[in-house]
Amino acid sequence: MSKSGIFEKNLPVKYFICITFTPSGELVTGDSNGTIYFWTDNTISSILRTVHEGPVFCLLFWRGVLLSGGRDGNVHCWNVGKSQECTGSLYLTKADGGVRMLQAHRGILLVGTTSNTIHSANMAPHGAPLAAPNFNKIPITQGHSETVLALSAGPQGQFLTGSYDGLLCMFRSETKEFAWKHVAKNANVVSADVNSTGTLAAVASKNCVLSVIRVNERNETKTLHRAKLGKSAMTAIKFSPDDQFLALGSANHTIYLFQVVDDGVFLEPYGKCKGHTEPILGIDWSATMLMNEFYLLQSTSSNLDYSLWAASTGEKLQNTPELRNVNWNSYDCKLGYAVAGVWPSELDDAIVINSLDTDKQESLVCAAESTGKIKIYRYPCYTQEAMPYTLPTYSKTVTQVKFMNSGDVTRLISVGSDANIIMQWKVNRKATDSVLNTT
User: Fold this and answer.
1) Most confident of 71-80, 181-190, 350-359, 390-399
2) CB count in 10 Å sphere of residue 5
3) Which of 261, 283, 259, 280 lies closest to 270, judged by CA?
4) What whole-number distance in Å separates Cα of residue 412 and Cα of residue 392?
5) Within a 10 A sphere around the Cβ of 40, how many other Cβ atoms?
6) How far does CA 8 lie from the centroid of its chain?
7) How far from chain centre, in Å, is Cα 421?
8) 136 to 183, 255, 291, 327: CA distances (angstroms)
9) Dihedral sign, CA of 344, 347, 351, 357?
């Protein structure tokens, strides 16, 4: 039998977000205004008014007290009695988002967040569980809550990811923990790059916003430059090897060239590369200057057009045999003489290569496919008869792959767009070489 709740003199609730029960079986509800109601039968017996800024997302009874979590990122502990006082709190950072779920296990409080992260805190063994605890330094899981498209290799075994949720995360690949987080306001991040020292990050977004972020020695972040450029989505971004220049690819078929001034405080435009007929999907700088005069750029577009450019002027160059052996500082372009063998001899609409990368030893090249597979080949890979080492990873498309080097250890990082999953692989060179040598 069901009964309607009686609010009496209390204003009716717009939305109930969560419910739980006291140990004696009475109902407790959290509403969209941050208020918690205690019910006896179908009548309100007591109220905790606006204890959260915004909705109460979750409630949990533990050792005779009530724990509440809200969109404001706070966890509060309440005595359930006449006093109903708050006896302790935990606070998430802004980058972690709000508290979506609470669960207790053997004295440990697990906190699931709206940013797809699970934090933990050791509760006090006696008395109020949250009288003193703080969150443990390393989250149990961490990541993004929306589509992940941006991935960049940083210095010292670190890598940067960016997502439509506006969150930028620099991870330490060895410990799998954050070096820093940064929230890019109102930015659907589609591409990001970090300079060679890890002190600057450049961010390109779907909503045409270009940002440059500085990271200090304490891993604190600050936005130095933020500008909206035109009306076309940004699609690719890359620092030059000496960190003095920045190339930005756009959906309007153009590559914009900037000089990095005053360590990222200003970006001075100095040229454009025009010649593609579809959105730019990949940009790479040459590892060194050609004849000590200028860098080369290579780029690909969505219609699989490959182009070479003089980065000093934006002039389009002929793809001559002399330029086929250029060493590239990265390999985001999906085409090129040295990677022709990763493509099937006949193009198949069901198999699209979304990303390529080579390791620092330039002995391996990996290809991320729309089928959810990652294939590793020997580099250079000239012929379509080359047989890969295949990793079945995601159920859907793999959007980005990057090799990471930390000392003698090589790791492979991959992201899947809709799965919001970041995978990390340790490259066993002996096993990989054995497979590639026998196929």
Assistant:
1) 71-80
2) 17
3) 259
4) 14
5) 11
6) 48
7) 9
8) 21, 44, 53, 44
9) positive
Structure tokens at 143: 């990541």
Q: Which CB contacts under 8 angstroms, 24+ apart, belong to 295-302?
A: 295/240, 295/241, 295/245, 296/323, 296/326, 297/247, 297/255, 297/273, 298/326, 298/328, 298/333, 298/336, 299/236, 299/249, 299/255, 299/273, 299/333, 300/333, 300/334, 300/335, 301/253, 301/276, 301/277, 302/278
Residue 342 φ then ψ, to 5°: -80, -15
Checking if the pLDDT of 111 tops 60, the result is: yes
Averaged pLDDT of the chain: 88
Tell me the per-residue pLDDT of 341-366, one tens digit each, with 9 for 90 and over: 998 777 666 678 999 999 887 789 99
Residue 253 sits at the vertex; the CA angle it makes with 252 and 256, to the nearest 5 degrees, is: 90
Residue 157 tokens, joined: 């075994």
d(CA 364, CA 273): 30
User: Do 175 and 138 contact (CB within 8 A), yes or no?
Assistant: yes
188-228 tens-digit pLDDT: 999 999 999 999 999 999 988 999 999 999 999 999 999 98
Q: Please count the CA atoms within 13 angstroms of the CA of 399 that sit on its side-chain side.
A: 21
* DSSP one-letter code for 380: S
Distance CA 166, CA 187 (A): 5
Whether 2 shows a pLDDT value over 70: the answer reads no
- To the nearest 10°, report the CA torsion of 241, 168, 144, 236: -50
Q: Which two tokens stand for residue 109?
A: 């409080």
Closest CA to 63 of 75, 79, 51, 40: 79
